[in-house]
Protein: Kinesin-like protein
Amino acid sequence: MAQRVAVGDAAGGSERPSRVRVAVRLRPCMEKQGEKAEGACVRGLGPQSLEIINWRNSTETLQYQFDVFYGEQTTQPEVFMTSVKPILPHLLNGQNASVFAYGPTGAGKTHTMLGTQKQPGVIPRAVREVFNLVRAQEKEGGDWDHTIGMSYLEIYNEKVLDLLSPNTQDLPIREDKDRNILIPGLTHTSLSSFSDFHTHFIPASLNRTTASTKLNHRSSRSHAILLIKVEKSQRAPPHRQLTGKLYLVDLAGSEDNRRTGNQGLRLKESGAINLSLFTLSKVVDSLNSGVGRVPYRDSKLTRLLQDSLGGSAHSVMIANIAPEQAYYFDTFNALNFAAKSKLIVNKPFVRETVSSTVSGKRGRQEQGHEAATQPQKKRFKEKQPEEQEESSEPAQPHSPAGSSVLSRLLALEKMMMGSPERERLNLLKTVAQSRKEIQKLKEKQKELEKKAQACNPFPADQKEQGQDVVIHSKKGVEALKDTGMFRTNLPPLYRKPSTAAKPKRQQAVVSPLQVSVVQPIQQCAVVFKPSLCPSMKQKQNPQVVEGKENLVKELSVPESDWESHLDTSVLVKSKEKILQILNSGTLKDLKTLQLIGDKKAKLIMGWREVHGQFSQVEDLQKIEGITVKRFSSFIKANILSTIVK
Ligand SMILES: Nc1ncnc2c1ncn2[C@@H]1O[C@H](COP(=O)(O)OP(=O)(O)OP(=O)(O)O)[C@@H](O)[C@H]1O
Structure:
């Protein structure tokens, strides 16, 4: 018989949420001798804070606060002792724990997780500690048997590959009816000692490296997940069983293809990495905001980490960053990602089964083990999980423990404010107020859109018919501007507070030392070169907008040739404007661009999240699905659209 026992229940209290602890580790500067030393772009301020130069204004810095900040001099034992060791005893209580290293390529993830022979990292230290804990408990006596086992896998190009039994087979991820994540076919090996772990782990790691050589830097291009499972079985009745799992994750580094010049296979790999890291960041966002469905299923990585993020595990994220100027945007993005991860609340629970017979020691090579477990309401069937194909039903919002948006928010409130009742009421009030305001704004927007349409001499469906250029009436745009709904193109950190009050988000604190407000882009004065555009006059008439004689709905100039009809300065300004939207626009802003729908807008945001800013509009061609031809249509449509606004 299996029962799920919440930590709080076991202790006789309520379920106690466990927050994901976020540590940031700055690696030492690696600038080689002879290279121009530009100085670090980031520096520590204290044991929990650091600052980075503001890229918009180099006389300013942005300050971040985390659970821990590890400076360049921090040693491997310090990282382990302060961030990892404290969560390991939970494994012996039937709870899950996870440690994952995030950060750009070359920032020190593998150093932190694996380390070197002289400076072993988190993985060897954690496994040794698990053995120590088990031994200590066995020495104390009691009627428990312990078994420790491992699985080791990597996610490469969205494929789940077994590193203990390497072959090219992509292992399926399944979920049983109790929402446990399973990987049928994944090798699980029992370990009798720490040296036994080494015996299996080292060749398995080499599998990863060997494949990497063959496939061109594969190791840094896959996410490696080591699972250590501790099972406790009671010898005497009632034969209780406790299972705790530890996930040690070395994430692939995000790469900026502009810097690496990735092409072909590497570009494809990079796409897969970026997709999973982007999804990871969306999962974090969604858990933090408590709004909408958590997109765990959108990538294999998040599906597997489901239990480590917003689930049942005690989690630690170590964000690795590099100090060199060349890493600036990678560092900036990693810090923002880490800041988001700070407020995820996990709900640890004890996994306990009670069986009528002692299960006995496990075989050396067990197949079909879970890679992750979920909170359950029903019996936990260790050996014969009732598997289901990956169900097509939508994911449960938020934690698999079924915690509602409200309970998640409340947990945050409890944790942060210490006065849950008052905060709960305030929160509910804010949400209700915000909803009302949003509704009002929506109505106003509809009204204004109607007005704008009335001023637009062209039928609305022309845009849908794929016409490249659509004229927006100036009046309509001005009206929208008045409401504050017209896009301001402000970058995320400095976005001017919208007049539409949003539901209060419990975001991690990212507090700039000084806040500079970037001015909205001025609408550029647009003048076609009349001399270069003789055909325009004849085409203008039916489509002239009042007061804008040189604006046309459509230019019937040859595809290749249209740019030459525009004044160069106009062209440059328009491109700048488009670039600014690409770099700092919200999803909504991006969708206002011609030929950019929801999917493309998300891809753009994902790219931005991972690589930072686009340096030129042409970089858009690096986004999946934006071919040269599409880009050419995009640029034509948007430049002309910008001009006619
Ligand atoms: N804290 C540190 N102290 C000393 N050297 C470090 C530290 N962190 C990283 N390094 C060194 O920096 C280099 C890059 O680190 P590492 O390979 O761990 O990066 P990574 O983030 O795992 O990169 P990738 O994503 O490509 O695998 C290595 O030579 C490593 O030894």
Notes: Residues 100 and 249 are 4 Å apart (CA to CA). The chain has a mean pLDDT of 66.
